[in-house]
Structures are given as C-alpha cells and as structure tokens.
Specification:
The structure holds two protein chains of two kinds. In chain A, 82% of the residues lie in helices and 0% in strands. Chain A is mostly helical. Chain A has two domains: 59 residues; 32 residues. In chain A, helix 2 runs antiparallel to helix 3. A two-stranded antiparallel ribbon of chain B has the order 1-2. Classes of the chains: A mainly alpha, B mainly alpha. Chains A and B meet through helix 1, helix 2, helix 3, helix 4 and helix 5 of A and helix 1, helix 2, helix 4 and helix 7 of B.
Chain lengths: 119, 236
C-alpha cells in the first residue's frame, strides 16, 4: 500500500515537469510533411533563379526552426540554454561570409589563368 | 522542460532569467539534466562539423569552372520508363520526418510513464531509420554503378562525387549510430529499466525517462541536418 502511495507521489511530482499536449506534436509533424512537400514541388516545377533560392531557403529555415523549437523543446527551455546554443551560429554565418568572398576569388583566378590564359 | 522549480532559487523568465541563471554561482542550466546539457553541447560541436562540410561544398561548387551536375537528373528514378526527379530523396525525406515524429511522441509518452507506447514508438523510429539507411545504400550503389567516384563522374564537375560521398556518408553514419542506439533503448524501455531504476550509461546514477529525451535530441538533430543537406545538396 505504501509502495503505491509513493508511486503516486512521484507521478504527481513528475507531472509538474510534464510534457505538452499531443496535439502540438501532431500539428508540427503535419506541418513538416507539408513543408517538405512544398520544397519538393520547387524542384518538380523547376523554378529557377532567385525564386528557387528564396523558396528553398524559406522552407528549409521554417522546417529547421519547427524541429528545433518543438521537437527538440527549445521553445520551452530557459534562455540560458537557448542562447548558449544559438549564438555560436553567428560564427558559422561569419565563416559562410568569408568563404563566399574566397570562392569568388578562386573562380576569378581560375577563369583568368585557365580560360583567358593569364595576363 | 517547462515550469521547473528549484528550492531556494527564484527562476525568472526571459533574458533576466538568463542573467540570473548564469550569475547564480550555481549550476547554469537550471532544471536541465546533465546528460541533456552534454548532448546539446555535443550537438553544437556536431553542427560545426556539418557546417564545415557544407561550407566547403559551397566553396567547391562555387569555384569550379566546369558545370555542376544537374542534381534533379542525377538523382531521378525511372518509374514505368518515365524519369521522376529526386523521387528517392523525397521518399527518404518523408521517412526521416516520420521517424522524427514518432520519436517526439516517444519522448512525450516516456515522460508520461507510458512504457508500452514509448517502446513501440522508439521501435518504429528505429525501423524508419533503418529504412532510410537502406535507401541510402541503394542510392550509393546506383551512383557508383553509374560511374560516380570521389575523383570524377560522367555528369559534370569532378568535385561532385567527393562532396556527395563525404556529406551523405557522414550523415548516414550518424543515422546508423542512431539506429543502433534506438534498438538498445527499445530494449531498455520494454525491459522496464526506467521503472526498476537500473543505472544509466557510464554512470552510477539511476536511469530515467530523460534518457529518451536525450536520445530524441540526437535523432531530431539527424533529421535537422538532413533538412539542410536536402536543401543545399539536392535542391540547390
């Protein structure tokens, strides 16, 4: 008897830190399917140029955000953890920026020496 | 997760909470299991590894003077004699998202102490992951058969093969490791290790359903990486 009482107590305690309603997971799941379908459609209809890039990036960031916020529970975590995780991403953004300049320079040198034949 | 309570410490919300948590002369991540914090730190470092791969891919693809292979043709499958672009990749994406959804529900049922539901959902996740790896093996062997090598391929720029095998290979390796652990945790949940408080991994501390959330974090991360690979490598 005492055993069951203890069990009940622990379940009650756990319920305080309990999970979200099942509906929110199912909605996010459905949204992820729909967004993946849309990003596949971008290729299916062969959109090109800026439209293609912006659509791909839009759906990608939306999907990534939904997964991180709800499936990985970041939406409910305290800011101390969220900020430790998200601020280092600015370093990656910096790296992308640097390498963009780098590949443009490499491409220019290759055209200059391989195609044009140098000065 | 939400509504944590810590004795003798006021948990403030938002950025004020971040400042007081950080400056509290105590553990910084209030109410976060140590294993969960460590998994997050590991995932952060893994993010950097994958970012380096994708950035080097961007640099390689951007600086080649030979045309990049048309991915929607290279990765197309013939269904009844008609080429369907990116068909296998689309199915792989849907399989991975499905397994991510079952994992999220497994975490939820784990915290609700619903042992059977949790176990079955983790098993479903493992089967989804296995299906994904199987399809990736099929994709690899198809491309190798068509003559794609790390040093060249018949479709275009020579760098295509090395980036493809490196990036999808490293991701597939993550999925494989995840599948192994999913099967182990399926066993642990069905065997009732979290009810009998058997000890966890490499620790004397008692096991708890929080381990399922930690496993879930890893699995969602694998899905997250695939979102970026799908966008940058296959769609771009």
């Amino acid at each position: 008897m005492e055993e069951t009482n203890k069990m009940e107590e622990t379940t009650k305690k756990e319920e305080q830190t309990s999970t979200q309603k099942i509906g929110i997971y199912l909605w996010i799941w459905l949204l992820l399917f729909v967004l993946s379908f849309f990003s596949y459609m971008v290729d299916w209809y062969q959109f090109q140029g800026m439209l293609r890039w912006s659509l791909i990036l839009f759906f990608m960031f939306l999907k990534a955000g939904l997964i991180m916020a709800f499936f990985m529970h970041l939406f409910w975590e305290r800011y101390a953890l969220v900020n430790v995780l998200l601020w280092p991403m600015t370093a990656i953004a910096c790296f992308i920026f640097l390498m963009t300049a780098e590949f443009k320079y490499t491409l220019f040198s290759r055209f200059f020496y391989f195609v044009v034949g140098g000065a | 997760m939400s509504e944590q309570k810590i004795d003798g410490f006021e948990l403030k919300p938002g950025f004020k909470g971040m400042a007081s948590d950080t400056g509290s002369d105590q553990t910084m991540f209030k109410g976060v299991h140590w294993g969960k914090a460590m998994m997050w730190i590991f995932l952060l470092s893994d993010t950097f590894v994958f970012s380096c791969f994708l950035i080097s891919y961007m640099k390689g693809r951007g600086s080649t003077i030979v045309d990049w292979p048309n991915t929607s043709e290279v990765f197309s499958l013939y269904v009844g004699g008609v080429p369907v672009p990116l068909l296998l990749i689309a199915i792989m994406t849907f399989v991975l998202i499905t397994s991510s959804g079952t994992m999220a529900l497994a975490v939820k049922y784990g915290y609700e102490k619903n042992r059977k539901m949790c176990g079955w959902l983790i098993l479903a996740t493992a089967v989804g992951g296995l299906t994904f790896v199987g399809m990736q093996v099929f994709e690899w062997s198809k491309l190798i058969h068509e003559g794609v090598r790390p040093w060249g391929n018949p479709f275009g720029a020579a760098q295509f093969g090395s980036f493809f095998f490196m990036i999808t290979g490293f991701h597939g390796f993550h999925v494989s490791i995840g599948v192994i652990f999913l099967f182990i945790y399926t066993y642990k949940v069905f065997a009732g290790h979290y009810e009998s408080k058997k000890r966890g991994w490499f620790t004397k501390m008692k096991g708890d359903y929080v381990e399922i959330e930690i496993l879930g974090l890893y699995w969602h991360f694998v899905d997250l990486v695939w979102v970026f690979i799908f966008a940058f490598f296959y769609l771009w």
